[in-house]
Design goal:
Elements: E1 11-16, E2 19-22, E3 26-29, E4 34-40, E5 52-59, E6 62-67, H1 73-81, E7 91-96, E8 104-116, E9 126-138
């Protein structure tokens, strides 16, 4: 039987001066989807079906959601990155899947959006940060 893991304890971390630092207050780490484009190569002598070859791979944008604390340095960092043009190539991040599955996925990403949730009278204030990964992710870093 295959192993099964609860998501509780998952972390989203940022590489700061060669040290992995967890972002505080994360409540949700969105889907991390890798996809591959295709190129249609059907010709007049193909069968009755279109033919394709694989093309470039990409990692889709994804979000993290956190219970927002304006005094938390990691939250302020993400807010400021949207307007900071000094690092257009992105930074290195990783996810740790859970407390029971210590597998990590590392990637470079650009912060493309920071938004605060609506302030419902009975709700909590959340912030959502959107990332656009660039380059190949490392699903099994050494």
């Amino acid at each position: 039987m295959a192993n099964k893991y609860a998501a509780f304890g998952a972390q989203f971390q940022r590489l700061i001066s060669a040290t992995w630092t967890a972002v505080a207050g994360i409540s949700k780490i969105g889907d991390f989807a890798v996809m591959r484009d295709t190129i249609e190569v059907t010709t007049h002598d193909s069968t009755n079906f279109r033919e394709y070859i694989g093309s470039l791979a990409d990692v889709e944008e994804f979000d993290i959601t956190m219970v927002f604390d304006h005094e938390e340095a990691s939250h302020e960092y993400f807010r400021d990155q949207v307007t900071n043009l000094s690092n257009p190539a992105g930074e290195t991040f990783r996810t740790v899947l859970s407390t029971t599955a210590a597998e990590t996925w590392e990637f470079t990403a650009i912060v493309t959006k920071f938004s605060l949730s609506e302030r419902d009278i009975e709700g909590r204030v959340e912030a959502t940060v959107t990332f656009k990964p660039t380059g190949a992710p490392d699903f099994d870093p050494a």
